[in-house]
Amino acid sequence: MADPGPASFSTRANALLRKNLTYQKRNLWSNVRLIMIPFYLCLILVGIQILFDTQVNNSADNRCGCQCIVKNGDGKCERKSCGFEYSSPDQAFFCSIPSPTRWPPLLQIPRPESRDVRDLGDDSCRRTGSCPVTILFTGNNNSLGTTVSENLLTSSLSVNISDLLLTSANNVLGTSSEADFTNYLDPAIALNLPIYNIQPQCIPNATFPFSFGQPPLMFQKELRCVEGSNRWKNTSREVNDEIFKGYRKGNREGNINEIAAGYDLLNTDSNNFNVHIWYNSTFKEGSRNRLIKLLRVPRSVNLVSNAYLQFLQGPGTRILLEYIKEMPKPETRLRLDIASLIGPLFFTWVILLLFPVILSSLVYEKQQHLRIIMKMHGLGDAPYWLISYAYFLTISMLYVICLMIFGSAIELNFFRLNSYSIQFIFYFLYLNLQIALAFLVSSMFSKVKTSTVAAYIYVFGSGLLGLFLLQFLIQDSSFPRGWIFFMELYPGFSLYRGLYEFSQFAFRGNLRGEDGMRWKDFSDSAMDDVFYIIIVEWFLALIAAYYIDKISSSGKDVLFFLKNPFKKTPPLRRPSLQRQGSKVTVEMEKTDVTQERQRVEQLMLDPSTHAIVCDNLKKVYPGRDGNPPKLAVRGLSLAVPSGECFGMLGPNGAGKTSFINMMTGLLKPTSGTGLVQGLDICNDMDRVYTSMGVCPQHDLLWETLTGREHLLFYGRLKNLKGSVLDQAVEESLKSVNLFHGGVADKPAGKYSGGMKRRLSVAISLIGNPKVVYMDEPSTGLDPASRKNLWTVIKRAKQNTAIILTTHSMEEAEYLCDRLGIFVDGGLQCIGNPKELKGRYGGSYVLTMTTSSEHEQIVEKMIQDVSPNAKRIYHIAGTQKFELPKEEVRITEVFQAVEKAKSNFTVFAWGLADTTLEDVFIKVARTGQAFNVFS
């Protein structure tokens, strides 16, 4: 098969996307169950709303009142009449009002304790409540303005008992309470709040009883006299400045207005009436949550108009403003949307529920080492981040869109009344932040269970804290708004605040029969701050997540971003033949190891001729808990050309896996150089991965993907496409006996250990990589499968350099062109199997079993045949002897055994040539002894 070359960015991205979609299809029912959770919560909200409607909204106390007109003999009502006159004050709110009550127009004035005292010299009147109400005047004509200001207020209280509305029209009545959003019931009259009569001069503590309305809304009030103070200012700038300075943020009761109004008469004269009126309509809710309130403007306009008419026509001329009232209204019912009020808690949980799903998926790839194995087979960081991020964002948006559609379909006002475009953008922005946070937080966890528990604590904790802490503080007007903004920096709170704004607009919209949040309301809510917070945090979280990922998974330097990307990598240092750091080591090494080191030093002048070149590679693990540093790999020098299978033998803990981890990018070498296809493993690992295959010691597979889907994914990473890919996958499956019987299309989670091992080998070889690392590839296989796998590996090594670790001497002898025995991090010997057996196994091994009393006779007999023979094993009459080949012949051994049989009983005996296993044991023992004494 021709070399397809490294896969492009789009090819690798396409491979990961198709793998993710396949994985998603395998987990279809898990996704269905996930989507059903918001459906159930929405249905719960609907149920709560229905129950609330039955018990509260539609209860008799919250409907227009009725009275029985005609009763039958049994006392049952036959005819009843409902309406305004039969209702209590609470019920009357819901009745139809064909002719609304006429209320006297009131002037909005400051509260007694906050009125302007700048012209008084002291503020003692604020404690007694006797401060005057200040009204500012300015204009181009000073004399006209003075006359108009003097005509503004009547000099005495005139009362007409027969016509109280006329009395209120002839007198200036005012209130310090804010207006409501309708004129059906003025809170200044309905509530226990004072009403003032503003006059130029007042008798101290003067009051006058007064009544308003008609049954059942009949109110008895007491008028209090308050002095009005008109002040002339030379320019409109002065008026504006005083009104601005006379407004400040107040306490729990609200914001403070010190000046009632300001009039700019502009160019008014006897022929022209032109006036601007200043007034402040900002109350305690502030601009963020301000309800749409009525403004008490009619009385201000009437006052200045009458003052001007009196200037023209004299004191008897007057525009009579008797009353103000609302338009007629039909009968209404209570419409409290409890579902919208508790919606922020439920929907915070619904949106945050995606966080544990995304986090567990990322941590699962980390825990199972799937991310690194994908990277080893050529999947770079850029396609991984792009596809993973886009994949999670798409799944999340589909989840939220389903929620919005379902919530609207069952008529939840939370979704139905608020602008869908604002909702969509808000959810889109927050989901981006949530995904970036999941990538960032995933770096802190290595176990799925731990991350899942922490994520669900975050989910439920955010909702409950939002309801019982954040919402309480938002509704407390005395709590500093700056701290609210600071709290919203916590992502769970920013989500809750956005949902809270939606709920408030939906609740008020439903109550008034209006729309909820629209773009024109955006700046009057807290959504603009929430959007800014989410956007900035998303950007910072994404940068931090990518930075940490680069450091942890890619082995980058902490300050890698400060390096010049256009700076060329310096050329490799050409080693000298005598190196200070390794001179002593070379002198102690065996001849074959020394020759390999010298060969590597020559190859470093042109390393591209060999697939793998390691020059003095060393790995030292730092000491921990008082232990000294651990030297795992001791200056390894090794060269492996293409077409060779190099076997690494050694006892457990010898450093074989550490060496492979360095060559595959899992570990960074402490010192030395490793080159793969001429590319440095420290600086060019991303390019190395494009031509590398790995069969790790433990099978790294997706439990729900089939064997065929695994090979399709890794084949695409190796730039195989179309029919070539299908053919390569089919051949790989057949070669490892996973093609027939439907095994190829079974989930890998249902494979046996041997089947998983064969699949891992097939993955490492697909696409004909230039370099393959196999860490104990035949572990757990039966003899037949092992033999078949050896054939596959032997066939694959024709154009590939393979480094293989194994504990099977038979496997090493069958597959490996050369062997190296590793002991305590150092290479003890190197050569092909025959050379090693010839070099370290120049003896026969004689085994003989007799009774215990004949052991010494057998030992003396062997010494006679071979004076330099060594007894290497002895237990219960069974003895093993090494006989040097140069001083003994096989016939002599047979003759000695026959002689022994004639003298005593020999239960068993055998003569064998040295095996590779014997060589391994001998070298390992020698190497360990040498390292102990050195």
What does this structure look like?
- By secondary structure, the chain is α/β, with parallel strands linked by helices.
- Among the domains are: 253 residues; 35 residues, no CATH class; 207 residues, no CATH class; 72 residues, 2-Layer Sandwich (Alpha-Beta Plaits).
- It contains 33 helices and 26 strands.
- The strands form six sheets. Strands 3, 4, 5, 6, 7, 8, 11 and 12 form an eight-stranded mixed beta sheet that branches.
- A hairpin with a 2-residue loop joins strand 16 and strand 17.
- Helix 27 packs parallel to helix 28 and helix 30 crosses helix 33.
- It is elongated, with a radius of gyration of 46 Å.
- About 3% of the residues have low confidence.
Helix content: 40-55%
Mean pLDDT: 84
Q: Could you give a short account of the major beta sheet?
A: 8 strands, mixed
The class by helix and strand makeup works out as alpha/beta
Instruction: Give the radius of gyration.
Output: 46 Å
Q: Span from first to last CA?
A: 51 Å
Structure summary, number of beta strands:
26
- Count of helical stretches: 33
In terms of DSSP E residues, the strand content is 15-25%
